[in-house]
Amino acid sequence: MALKLSPTMEEYLEAIYKLQNEFGMAKTTSLAKNLGVALGSVTNTVRKLKRLNLITHISYKGVKLTGRGEKAALSVVRRHRLSERLLTDLLGMDWDKVHEDACMLEHSISEDVASLIERSLNHPETCPHGNPVPSQEGKVFEDESLKPLTEIKPKEKFIIVKITEENPDLLRYLKQHHITPKAYAKIQELIPPDNSISIKADDEVHYITQQLASKIWVKKL
Questions:
Q1: Residue 11, in any domain of the structure
Q2: What CATH number does residue 21 fall under?
Q3: Among the three residues 25, 50, 65, which one is the final residue of a domain in this structure?
Q4: CA dihedral of residues 102, 111, 23, 191 (deg, nearest 10)
Q5: Is residue 187 included in any domain, yes or no?
Q6: Which of 77, 118, 136, 152 has the fewest Cβ atoms within 10 angstroms?
Q7: What is the DSSP string of the chain?
Q8: How many domains would you assign to the chain?
Q9: Per-residue pLDDT averaged across 87-108, rounded?
Q10: Domain boundaries, position 30
Q11: Is residue 90 part of a domain?
Q12: Cα gap 134→74, rounded to integer Å
């Protein structure tokens, strides 16, 4: 029998998956900030997920998904990213507005519906922000050659592949400045004292912080 999880538990698994991918482990304080909930709520839900053998918890370090937990998390991520494609590709919604609606849809649709969406959209490989859509079997293709923009040197050219942050204001800013997946660009220079990045995209030069640059993943040309 398929594991039945509440929307709250699915949100936690999705958040843990993303934090684990970025930092190797999800700290409870990071989960609280990411989900906008109190630390006490995180503690209670973490206990429930641990009882279901979906996560392991290491005191003072954080939590990690078990094999069972990763499978459940990838199912949520798959439904979320396909929902985003449905909203942008079929309904014409802007890429900076789809996240919240996709969060609601992901808990409402079954895997059968997700597969129908995938087929009707001609099997999209990524969400609108360039992040890979997991397969029905729970496989994720990640290009190992991708690097965060923070690791690119001045004068190096690259193509933008994915944006790992889905904050609406940030996405709106990036779109306004043509810093989007499939765009070609290069770093002009690093600006002291904080090494802000001068980036040229679509023949325009823009300045972004190191923090924002860490959310932009690119492929060197």
A1: yes
A2: 1.10.10.10
A3: 65
A4: -40
A5: yes
A6: 136
A7: -PPP--HHHHHHHHHHHHHHHHHSSB-HHHHHHHHT--HHHHHHHHHHHHHTTSEEEETTTEEEE-HHHHHHHHHHHHHHHHHHHIIIIIT---TTTHHHHHHHHHTT--HHHHHHHHHHTT--SB-TTSPBPPPTTS-----TT-EEGGGPPTT-EEEEEEE----HHHHHHHHHTT--TT-EEEEEEEETTTTEEEEEETTEEEEE-HHHHTTEEEEE-
A8: 2
A9: 95
A10: 7-65
A11: no
A12: 6
Assigned domain for 71 exists: no
Indicate the residue among 22, 40, 65 that finishes a domain: 65
111: which residues sit within 8 A by CB, 6+ positions away? 75, 79, 136
CATH number of the domain that residue 192 is part of: 2.30.30.90
Amino acid present at 67: G
